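Example A, followed by Example B.
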Amino acid sequence: MNTVDLNCDLGESFGAYRMGNDQEILDYVTSVNVACGFHAGDPTVMRKTVQLALGKEVKIGAHPGLQDLIGFGRRNMNISPQEAYDIVVYQIGALNGFLQSEGGSMQHVKPHGALYNMAAKNKELSMAIAEAVYKVNPELILFGLSGSELIRAGQAIGLQTGSEVFADRTYQHDGSLTSRLEKDALIENDDVAVAQVIRMVKEGKVLSQQGSDVALKADTICIHGDGAHALSFARHVRESLQLSEITVKSFS
């Protein structure tokens, strides 16, 4: 019997701006990654998101990103490893304050957007992020792209890692995600996305845009909560996994 975690990015509203279907999507996922105020989110949204997730008994992780609200943290920034360390520690601490005040605890840390993708290929950056997580709490799980430098850095420093795959993204021959700047970065057909997910979990493979199979490990599946059909897609993924005899459960 295959087992996999199903995670989603939440808490990405801020100020007067509303994004996602946070409350509804919690019925279908087992872990959430809460924005910590740099790429999205604000203190009020963080508190409310923590309360919602705890109420649904969904595991909570920090989702630290680059300090880029306008670009939603998806634009590369030339930060140093020390800066990466500092912003990750800072954002974990911010979310942890809300978790402690609400009687909850943090399960994991998953970098966001450009920070995530930069760390997937940059060894020094990934080591700085892994060190930040480890020094805050060595019991935290580090989520990273399957087969990436971030996963290797987490393992090297002694963290439990969660190798992540994506339901609605296409892959390159080296195992990286297709850039969002490319027209074929997202999988628009739900059935195609679900078929990709099931194959990644059961076979440990994904078909790249170049036509070759890429080996990967699927500990946790990311679904995005900010799309036009995010809620129905989350439901479809969850139901399809169960019909394929794949158990959906959190790491804990």
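Example B, a separate protein, is given below in the same form.
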Amino acid sequence: MAGESAAGELGVPAGVPERREYLFKVLVIGELGVGKTSIIKRYVHQLFSQHYRATIGVDFALKVINWDGKTLVRLQLWDIAGQERFGNMTRVYYKEAVGAFVVFDVTRASTFDAITKWKSDLDSKVFLPSGGPIPAILLANKCDQKKENSMQSPSQMDHFCKENGFVAWFETSAKDNVNIDDAARCLVENILQNSKDFPVEENDVSSVQLEREPLTAESKSLCC
């Protein structure tokens, strides 16, 4: 899928700042049932349901952000199924991504234990043009259900993120719409900092090329 062209028509007066449009591919990964689909639905459509069906393979959503007066950002969010870490398709799904959310469920310790495996898989399969890892933000989801001692302390989380190469972490709740917009803004800020290294088309479009995958999301079981 090609990037969008830079805004601005012929005849724009000299000295008027050129509007730039970006198309960024962002991954949303983590174990089955941690709430990846719920987070995307809340962020893109401001919707929440207790009964989203489990994603099989990969699903997509598009979020358009008027970042500032001269910058428009389109985020193509790739909702990667929780079981995909055990397959060989993640290399295809991750291709050309420039940022990622890695999600765990604060009420299920096993989903936190799996974070390092997801991050390692991510870092081994997709890179920035400079060769470094793409920016990744850790989401401690379902904080509305958090019980005392159900997750590590903030200082422990800060240390964990530093040790594992996350640029930041946020407690989130798709149900109560907690910190999802803030987490997304933080990720976009980090992506834009790297954008000067992204390939630019001949017509001076700052964009990332995305491939169209012939994949659809089917349903077998329920997740929140």
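On Example B: Strands lie at 20-30, 52-53, 58-68, 71-80, 99-105, 136-141, 168-172, 222-223.
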